[in-house]
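Q: What would this complex look like in 3D?
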Amino acid sequence: MDYDVAFPGLIVTRLLLAFAPLPDSLIHDHQLSTPLTSYPRLLEGLYLFRHGVDPYSGGLFRHSPLLLSLFSTALPLNRFTAALIWTASDAAAAWALVHTWRARQQVKGKTSRDSLIAAVYLLNPYILLPSLALSTSSFENTALLLSVMFAVQAQTSLSLLLLAIGTHLALTSWLYLPPLALLCLTTPVSYLASPRPLPFSSNEITRKLGTLATEYSAYLLALAGAATIVAGGVGWLDKTWGAVFTLPDLSPNVGLWWYFFTEMFDHFRPFFLMVFSIHLAVYPIPLVVKFQHDLLYAVYILTGILATFKPYPSIADAGLFVSMSVLFPETYQYLRTPFPTFLIHLHSSLLLPLFHHLWLGSGTGNANFFYASTLVWGIGMGLGVGDAVWAGLLTGIKGRFKNDADEQEWEITQE
Amino acid sequence: MKRPAVWLLSFLFFALSCSSSLAQDVAQQDVVRGFFDAQGGAVSSHTNNWAVLVCASRYWFNYRHMANALGMYRTVKRLGIPDSNIILMLADDAACNSRNKFPGCVYANAGRQLDLYGDNIEVDYRGYEVTVENFLRVLTGRMDPSVPRSKRLLTDDKSNIFVYMTGHGGNEFLKFQDNEEISAFDIADAFEQMWQKKRYHEIFFMVDTCQANTMYTKFYSPNILATGSSELRENSYSYENDNDIGVAVIDSYTHHILNFMEGIDKTSQKSIQDLFDTYSYEKIQSHPGVRSDLFRRPLRQTLVTDFFGGVAQAEVLPSLPEVIQRSSDAADTANSVPGAHIIPPVSAYRANDTYTYQATPAKGVDVAVVFARSATPGQSRALITFRAWASIVLTGSLVTWASRTRVK
Amino acid sequence: MPNRFILKLRVILRGTGGDKNVTRIQRRRKLGNLAWRLYPKLQILLLLVGYAWMLTIPSSLHVQRTYIDENALQPAQVNTYWNWGDVHRADLYLEELEALRDCNASSHEIATFLSTEFRKLGIPAAMQEYTFDTRTGAVHGMNAYAVLSSPRASGTEAIVVSASRRSQTGEPNLRGVATVLSLAAYLKGSSLWAKDLVFVVSDGHLDGMQAWITAYHGVAQSNLVAEPLQLASGVIWTALNIDYPGHSFSHLGVFFEGLNGRLPNQDLINSVQRIAQYTGGVPMLVYDHKGYNELPNQESAFLPRWLPDGLRQTPEAQEYAYRAENVVRHVGFQARGRASGVHGLLHQFRIDAITLFALPAHGPHGFHAIGRVVESTLRTANNLLERLHASFFFYLLVGPTTFIKIGGYLPSALLVSVAMLFGGMGAWAHARWIPPPPANEKQEQERWIARPRPLLPALFVVCSTHALGAALFFVCATSFACAAGVPSSRAPDHLILKTLNLCLASTVVSVTSVLNFSLAATLAIALGFPLSFSTPSSSAIARLGRFTAYASLALGWLFMEDEVTQALLNWELLGVWFAPFVCIMYTPLVLQAGIVCLLSP
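A: Here is my prediction, written as structure tokens for the whole assembly.
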């Protein structure tokens, strides 16, 4: 289907869905939004802000002050505008994804897969449902995808600025800096099949990365300044960014942190919080090193890893990972376990709301039911990410082969 | 060094004076010890009795635990320990529970013959005040100055303390209030603190829970005698139900102890060993245990009333006519003066036990704090809008600047 | 000898030497081939084991005795003081109710009488009028209820004692209502109630209580116009419904299924059983099924006639038949999401509720026994400090004192689901790979030929069948005329469709089994073999024939008029999900399997 027809059509479908009468419980659902991204909390914070009370004095509002300023000035928030804003955000993210694909294919105009890519993002239930639930994770996804798009178009400043904005919305996004910065410096064209080291000397790399990191930090600080102006103090730091490190709110979500820390004695809390946070931070560098020939793939893998191991994930993060997989069709044939991954996702996405209902709705189950389903979700995500890594590496190994016959001669096994 | 002789002489003089005072002290101590060892060292040398009775579980179906504690309370009170020397901790109010068919009464047997709640009862720690922290503070004496006297364990080094605990327990722990636990180590450490601070002479520790004997396995302070209702991995069972109250009213072990105590009065010469000899699996449905290795006196010579009763040693002093007049009633030295409350000497207090009764600070102090912490209510709308727009403008300018500089 | 065995083991595990990686690859290939060859047999094996397990559910393999899990309950530990004076009062009430029935009093008059009687006892009472708007006309009624506030507690919790005016047998529940009135009079005399007692006499059978309980919890229903309740009480934790149609009774039957397959906490049933046995002296039954030794001929009618006598008359067979009868009755209620009595409407609000059905007989028990049982049960429920949470919520009650834990029956449905899953995965693999011709087995390197595997057409068929099912449901729900159409199909690869079909069916069975085991088991039985072995054939007639068979399996239920009407009525009135589930899940799944048969191979 022609992209020029499909894309507006999809947007219209999304708008219709957004304006359809949906159950109110969607907004409060624990799978679709987290304490850091929930819409009722956003409304609460805006209300407090408008009435002169510091929204960060309580423990409820954990959104970035930038959202506070945006929605109390330029974009007033009510049911009508919310649907428009969230649809626009998703449309921008889909548009960014399409343009990233085009840059990767080095095509200026349309490609045949454009509509498929837009449809995969806009109709993906993992992206659609949180967007209908008005969770601000949609903005996080949009910021990241726009940042990636600008990076592959070599517009470094915009890319870093959007990453800084994304970091303000979700602190864990700062982990995307290594691959994104390098992506700004290299080409997004697929080199998965022909891996080669970075075409820079180590001095050059240090210098360039240093510049980019400085620029990013400058943007981050400037935005932090803007945030401080809005919030009237630095109290927001502890409540928004600090929440990622101290995990104060143990509302259930699809992640692996919350149950662990409900059972944790206070004595051990700081240690394990540190371990879990450092665990997240060890992934970017090895990924960049391993996939230095195709940094877009590194970003893709990192989205999957963060979706699994973030402190407050929702299914929107998994949706980002799934949606970005359309950018790499050359790896599909090397995926080992796509079908089991799909099945595990199918089962866990049905079991998560079911067990949540059994625990908190009908009261016939308990927290362990829901926890078990989050573990299944984690297994599904882990399987998907591991398979993606495998496929990416295998593309590089098997890409050496000139023809199919040679390829079939060889079998790759893992020690 | 110029005059070694002077130094030597002054040292000798110093040594002599020390030794003489020491000798005097020793002589005094001999007299005191002689008073207490009057009957060959078999009689306990305590001068006052205290009881700490703890029921650690709440809810209506744990009625029997409250009845246990109240039964012990009635027993020690009957045998002479006054309310001021009893710390009674009841985690819930069974008597005034809305399910109680006999409001205001707590019974320990199926025929409801004896109301333990009665009209003369002083519960020191009630309801949610019965916590592990408060229990340990009671034992160790580390309390806020504002805690009233009736809630303190004002013991000294000549106090015999009867500590009774009942509730739900397990291997080396006892459940308080359904949400926290005290471990055997905690109690052992508390007793050691008490020993170091000279807060007890002897302790008799009795516990009636499931796997109760594990609770006393960790004690390491001297002069502690302990007994429990059941072994490791063994349950303690209730004794009987009352079919009008609808729940079990007493536990087997405590029922057995209380039965034994019914035969004890203030003059009883029954020893603790006699009590332990009555233990039997058939009657109690579990294996009660005894730990006496830390206890210095022989059990056959330790009276039950040494712990359960407010019996004190009294010696009639001869000589002065007025004293003879007054003491003509106290012919039998073995009798105690009921309710004799011997005020411990001041030197027994440690520096930490402050008894300065200050006025409690004004209640309004806390309120003022709230005001200081709340956000400034008077911030104008204009300022808020200005701040929001300022940050938007800043962000927008960042975006425009970034899109201008398109770096390759 | 051991040496050789170890050597052989070593060879198997480590290979014959040479490159370890080669050995690994060879081993993997061998395992892959083994899985390829064996998975159809594995599928059949799992299906058979699953169904065999289902057949063993009523046997003594899985049963265990019930026990009281919540310590606070202490059932049958109280003396009851319900006595002949109270029985006499109940008789008087009964006379008046009979008089009202004889002069054909209207709902309004009866409700007025009831609320007046409550007020005479000093208990605040009120009435509630309601109207249901259904396709068969309007259902109108008037409930009467009274709230006995707890004398010494704050009334934040409540226990409901209810009786519907019509019994489940269809007769008027006069004695049930009389019991409630007399109980109200008697219970007012004690001051030991920690919870409010709410006495409800609901009109009709299920409709009255639905109107009352939804109004109590403020839940609006589109086709119900009900007065809001004038009297309020606290959160309801437990409820007892009394169903006493006949003159006397010999047993007390307990009915416990709720809407959409929910069950109350098992402790409530266990407590009632203990109380009925020790305090009431009344034997308890599951539903109204008498045990085989109480039946004439000492023989259960449930065993098929063709079994030889020697086998049929053994105690094991009789017990099996008794348990099987209970299981089948339970599945009949739970799979269709029906409430087995008035109590079932309360489960959706997290209320543990059962119905005590006095089995009509010339038998020895009457008001005295049922009053004692209810009094003691209320004393037991009064002891609770929090909702029942300790005992089981997922169980199969196969006898008054025997039950099966979830681990004893759930795996049967899951095995069938796993078999279907294996079928799906096998079809997926078949869709991609063509195995090498068997003549080349000697060769090490077997070339498996890959073929492209387009997913979208099959996905389209799946979505369209489900959409069709949804459309079917809407059509059925809005009119009597139901049209079943065959969706137009392109030519997708039948294997991919089979994959999606089986995987979806497997997921549906697994996920439903936790929510409503009976429904999952019924689905497993209905879908297991048909879906796993749907294959197209070369002849068009055979394909058409197979498709017709599947279509009739999918849509044959349209011809069961009573069932359809009842299911749709339940959906309309009570929000039972069975009707939409059949239309949106079951029918499309079977239709997809039929389409698989219809496609060209």
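A: To summarize the key features: Chain C has 17 helices and 14 strands. Residues 71 and 390 of chain C are 9 Å apart (CA to CA).
Q: Very helpful, thank you.
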